[in-house]
Automatic annotation (TrEMBL):
Domain of life (superkingdom): Bacteria
UniProt KW keywords: Signal
Signal peptide: 1-23
Protein name in UniProt: YHYH domain-containing protein
InterPro entries: YHYH_dom_bact
Amino acid sequence: MKKIIVMFIALVVLVGTSTSAYAHSGRTDKNGGHNCSAKSKQKGLCTGYHYHNKK
């Protein structure tokens, strides 16, 4: 029973962290894109304007 509880908790943690890894606080415009913040540029996360709703 202990193994099942541990496996369930591990599964919840893995699912919870994998979906939140793609989120960020940037707002998008009518085209589905936005400019990166200065902090994101310093971290190397992006270089400028980019889209999130590519089709």
